[in-house]
């Protein structure tokens, strides 16, 4: 049986096994995109990196969506070239864009441009694009989401930003590994997304989520920035 979880602050969906989780998340994302395409003619989604969502993106690309009407960008990015194999852009290309023929991709990092200019361009792009139909989020064992790392020197500034994206220096934060410089969605950017999906695997991640909800401390658990927003509740898809 799935691990019990209860909270009125999130919509929690437990899946019994990994394949069912992959299929259900991909179907949920396709349904959200198709609804917005039917209503607005186009849709936009923001994707996260990491190994957890990659099979979901592969499954999503095979579903019946007019990909030529879908704009794709990122929830966050390491300060790396989009061609770098460790970039989120590379993962999205390999797992999704090569299969979703016609989808348009806007990377956050622009080759040859300094970090502040890339953040400026990302915010300008967000300003003149459709509000995102969905954002697919992950969460680290430290409670971070996007690149909002607990303990980072820029966290408070990012949390208080009135722009969708911010630069963040996560030097000294273990979860950032060897890539401390980041571009990340802010709570303001998360708020603009019509639906927020959190893709989780494993009991440890579930325990972290419960600790975050119990703490109400966004500095310690930045995942709360994706939970405590107006509109639809954060939808959590979980499997062990």
TrEMBL record:
Belongs to the glucosamine/galactosamine-6-phosphate isomerase family. 6-phosphogluconolactonase subfamily. Residues 18-226 form the Glucosamine/galactosamine-6-phosphate isomerase domain. PANTHER family: 6-PHOSPHOGLUCONOLACTONASE (PTHR11054:SF0). InterPro entries: 6-phosphogluconolactonase_DevB, 6PGL, Glc/Gal-6P_isomerase, NagB/RpiA_transferase-like. The keyword Hydrolase applies. Keywords: Hydrolase. GO terms for biological process: carbohydrate metabolic process; pentose-phosphate shunt. One of its GO terms (molecular function) is 6-phosphogluconolactonase activity. Its EC number is 3.1.1.31. Hydrolysis of 6-phosphogluconolactone to 6-phosphogluconate. Pathway: Carbohydrate degradation; pentose phosphate pathway; D-ribulose 5-phosphate from D-glucose 6-phosphate (oxidative stage): step 2/3. This is 6-phosphogluconolactonase. The gene is pgl. Pfam families: Glucosamine_iso (PF01182). It catalyses: 6-phospho-D-glucono-1,5-lactone + H2O = 6-phospho-D-gluconate + H(+).
């Amino acid at each position: 049986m799935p691990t019990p979880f209860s909270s009125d602050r999130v919509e929690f969906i437990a899946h019994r096994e990994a394949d069912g989780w992959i299929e259900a998340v991909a179907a949920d994302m396709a349904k959200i995109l198709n609804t917005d395409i039917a209503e607005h003619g186009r849709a936009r989604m923001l994707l996260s990196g990491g190994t957890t969502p990659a099979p979901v993106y592969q499954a999503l690309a095979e579903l019946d969506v007019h990909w030529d009407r879908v704009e794709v960008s990122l929830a966050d990015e390491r300060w790396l070239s989009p061609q770098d194999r460790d970039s989120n852009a590379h993962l999205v290309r390999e797992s999704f864009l090569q299969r979703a023929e016609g989808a348009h991709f806007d990377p956050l990092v622009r080759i040859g441009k300094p970090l502040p200019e890339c953040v400026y361009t990302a915010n300008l792009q967000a300003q003149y694009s459709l509000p995102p139909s969905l954002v697919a989020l992950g969460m680290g064992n430290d409670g971070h989401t996007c690149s909002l790392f607990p303990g980072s020197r820029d966290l408070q500034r990012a949390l208080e930003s009135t722009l969708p994206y911010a630069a963040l220096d996560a030097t000294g934060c273990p979860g950032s590994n060897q890539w401390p410089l980041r571009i990340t969605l802010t709570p303001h950017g998360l708020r603009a997304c019509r639906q927020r999906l959190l893709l989780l695997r494993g009991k440890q991640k579930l325990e972290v989520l419960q600790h975050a909800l119990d703490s109400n401390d966004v500095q310690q658990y930045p995942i709360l920035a994706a939970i405590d927003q107006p509109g639809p509740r954060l939808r959590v898809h979980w499997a062990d």
